[in-house]
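pinned: reference chain
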Amino acid sequence: MDYQNWGPRGISAPPRTELPEVPVERGMVLEDVQSGWVGAVTRVEKSGGMHVVALEDRRGKSRSFRLGFGFLLEGQPIRLMPPAPARAVAGPAAGRTASGSVRVAGQRAQVAKASRIWVEGKHDAELVEKVWGDDLRLEGIVVEPLHGIDDLTAAVAAFRPGPGRRLGVLVDHLVPDSKESRIADAVMASPGAAGNVLIVGHPYVDVWQAIRPSVLGIQQWPTIPRGQDWKTGILKAFGWPHSTKEDIGLGWQKLLGAVRSYADLEASLLGRVEEVIDFLTVP
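pinned: its structure tokens
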């Protein structure tokens, strides 16, 4: 042992470690060091002039703690800070819609035409509406969710497409040799479909993935093992509540809230939606 370097200085003035300051977020899983309580953040509120965070454990029980030191995040000590102020996110440029089109001032939405855009579900419809809604209202085109495409052939037959009554369908995970591609082929072989029906799709498991990862502050979307519900797995990977349908809905609203314009979406979705709009609006 080197006694030359041992002395009061070594034990009376240990090096100071600065803990990372992390703004609290709903869904963040934390451990209170003193009590050992582990739970997900369900709410943050001010009480008696100080911020208090509520942590709900896996049994659904909740306890409240004061923000500050004494928390572990992913096993690492942190200083838990109040929520970060909402950042101003750049939206579409002045005079432009969220899709990048020139905004037409003073023109009212048209009466809905017979032609329709069908999408697989509610989330697809909400994303299309957020980015292309202004354009579609100007053209009189309505977006309708299908809630799945297993019965697409029967639905198209009931719609009775024809000239002036066209149908554009946006399908999730439309890749070669998939169930979706076989359904699309069957629909396009049905009477009246040729020239009046256009089925396009993106390669993603779900439309959530059409949001560019960088918009969400991540490098790439998490990989979810086969056999596990994809949306549940995504929210779990993010550390967000994921146990109920309400959790899924709230998680989607948080993702959708990050989208401000077409620039926040992947090109593989942008091109397909624009193709459908052109198909329905160009004579």
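why pinned: The CA atoms of residues 210 and 250 lie 18 Å apart. The longest strand covers residues 38-47.
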